[in-house]
Amino acid sequence: MSYLKKNLKLITITAFALPFLAGCGSPDTDQMKAGLIRSGMPAAQAECFAQKAADTVDGDAYNYMAKLMNEGVKESQAKSRTRRKYGPEFQKPLKEARKACVQ
Question: pTM for the complete prediction?
Answer without folding.
Answer: 0.73
